[in-house]
Design goal:
homodimer; alpha+beta; L-amino peptidase D-ALA esterase/amidase; Ubiquitin-like (UB roll); 8-stranded mixed sheet; 12 helices
């Protein structure tokens, strides 16, 4: 996140998390940035979502950074939640030395309680001291936004624009449970914060973020529950110079690439997950149907549980495709486990691949056991559209984590 | 199911289930019946769904009964699955002594393998011998259609029509996993078979079944996976005499009552379930939104896991309502646990009820621990529409059952 020029990041302990882990992060640009955001489409919206969207609408070209708090969602907190957020932003701007109204907020954690404002404000000086550049700073910020996540999520890419300018795109994310982002333009408790030193207009940045988050974060599903707090921010401070980059193919690919990497990391770290499940659908009639089909398979509770058990239960895959909403001819359906050299067929022309009818297939079972990342290649033979979705298996730990999240 | 006059039922072992439990059932009317059916809307449809729908379209007024097989779904079996079904029906009609083309088929079990026709045909004579009337016969038929279910599901009601005729409605059902029925008219591996001695036209029976299954079975969700095999059949043999009953309010209430009882039993016996969850939504703008809101809460993985842990995690309930698609003002939302004497508030005007903000509420926790059936009363204050949905909690056993269903 500090790979792009002109950004500093940090993360400290404000004492909001009972665990005592870092819970307050900031990303700051040393010059004004343009910004874009996509937010949850849930009608129950956390206070920082309401405030962040309002700020982006008011001053999308004069921002300086992001502050993020983990441990409380600041959702279902009514007008007090809004005023808490406003007070936090005013104090943060002053404490971090940037103008009021230039910081975007984000929160993640338990829904219901108000944010413990005194603790948060008291930690701002140490946060200011913590801000720096480099991989360690990125890691501290990435750590401080986690909740039930087991690992930090960081990605960065570099791109050479058509005019020769070299730009950088960096990002961090969190997300493990309550993950089924359906972010609207302005879409997204998945949090992701991206920075770039490219120059971009707010409108161009907004269109780019909406398009690429639709293809990436909105195709991740861990538990089907679309959070009250989902937020992605993208800041562009122009420190690399050159012209506005939002239409440049290399820049768009870099932003898309960072989003896709972070989205995969979120899916891989889904609550209790032991395996990443990627479903690539080919041959759908149109993009909407390709996405419906891919999402249905990664979202199926039965497919997820079978994957945890390394059970090549092909009927559950066909079943999920059948109710996905995508048009398909069941007698043409092909599904395989994608492998580097040759794929392993699971369904051939609508029938279980030989040996899999009765749950046989010891070889396929062994393969599923060994793989920590399983990619299903689905071919509908109805058209030319394709889409990819990311999810994870459903394990005993998932139930453990969520039956007693707060205790 | 044999409470209505003129029906016999039975269930025997054909050896299809590895467990050796009963797996072949029949319900027979001693005179021609009219019939109606609703079937899964999944595009991947089991052979008995295809054949049953075709039969109902061809001869809805000249039926004699239902044969049902558990252990194999007879789905993803291609043309062979259809011809296996046809052969099974021909042999069953002959063996049970009714005309060819008068029996409706249903299957449930593992997707993929073909039905072991020789075993099934060999069991028809013992099935014929097993057919009888009374609660024991109903129980044997109800047992023989179960898969991962832990208990048989039976219901019966009596109604007095406006013209004085007394009619009976009986039913059995199965369903535990792959339960998210979305049955079309003609909607539903939930199986439910209803019989009545009322007289009814096929069209009237079809409309009644579609309407009442929409309100009952289509509002049950165990795992979100809409099966390839869901089927509800309703047979009316007219043995009670009187006029066509389908418009009679008492008869409609009896059919609806039997369906609702069976639907609740299916939800209560969801795979691994320790608690039945009923969500009653009031004050929605319209029926569609009321159903969306109720379904979202019973379907939420996070709500289900919290319920297993007896955790009054009110944020997850609000979150599910927020993404349900129903219009709501988060600041007006009220949710309570319905109790016989006075309800226990969870959310009051969009905020956690006092004491529940930080996961406190030892009393509420104790209550949730004690209850085996939890009813949430949700008030949206947007209109006058209401709807009820049924589901269950998400337990360790659910994962256990589905990570190794076939092994």
């Amino acid at each position: 996140m500090t790979a792009p020029r002109g950004y500093r990041a940090g993360g400290v302990r404000a004492g909001v998390k009972r665990s005592g882990r870092p819970d307050l992060a900031a990303i700051l640009s040393d010059r004004p940035t343009t910004g874009a955001g996509v937010f949850t489409t849930n009608l129950v919206r956390a206070a920082p979502v309401v405030v962040g969207e309002r700020l982006l609408r008011a001053t999308p070209a004069n921002l300086r950074g992001i502050v993020a708090l983990s441990g409380v969602a600041n959702a279902m907190t009514g007008p007090e939640g809004i005023s808490d957020t406003d007070a936090w932003l005013v104090a943060s701007a002053e404490g971090l030395g940037v103008p009021t109204g230039t910081l975007l907020p984000a929160c993640t954690g338990v829904i219901g309680p108000r944010m413990p404002l005194p603790k948060v404000l008291a930690a701002i000086p140490s946060l200011r001291g913590d801000l720096s550049r480099g991989a360690d700073a990125d890691a501290r910020a990435a750590q401080a936004i986690l909740t039930t996540d087991t690992r930090a999520k960081v990605a960065a890419l570099r791109a050479r624009l058509a005019d020769g300018t070299v730009v950088h795109v960096g990002g961090i994310a969190k997300g493990s449970g309550m993950i089924a982002p359906r972010m609207g333009p302005p879409h997204a408790t998945t949090l992701a914060f991206l920075t770039t030193d490219a120059r971009a207009t707010p409108e161009g940045l907004g269109e780019l973020l909406a398009t690429e988050s639709d293809r990436t974060f909105n195709m991740v599903n861990v538990d089907g529950d679309t959070s009250t707090n989902d937020t992605i921010y993208l800041l562009a401070n122009g420190a690399a110079g050159g012209r506005a980059a939002e239409k440049d193919a290399s820049f768009r690919a870099a932003v898309g690439g960072v989003l896709e990497s972070l989205a995969r990391q979120v899916a891989r770290d889904g609550e209790g997950a032991t395996k990443l499940l990627t479903v690539a659908v080919h041959g759908a009639r149109d993009l909407v149907q390709a996405r419906q089909a891919a999402r249905a398979v990664v979202s199926s509770t039965l497919v997820k549980a079978a994957l945890f058990g390394a059970d090549p239960n092909v009927g559950r895959i066909a079943c999920a495709l059948g109710y996905s909403g995508a048009q398909l001819d069941p007698d043409k359906l092909d599904v395989a486990i994608a492998r580097p050299r040759h794929s392993v067929p699971l369904i051939v022309e609508g029938r279980p691949a030989p040996g899999l009818e009765n749950g046989g297939g010891a070889k396929v079972r062994d393969l599923l056991h060994r793989l920590s990342e399983v990619t299903l290649d689905v071919r509908l033979h109805e058209g030319t559209a394709h889409a990819t979705a990311w999810g994870c298996d459903l394990s005993f730990s998932y139930v453990q984590i969520n039956a007693a999240y707060r205790t």
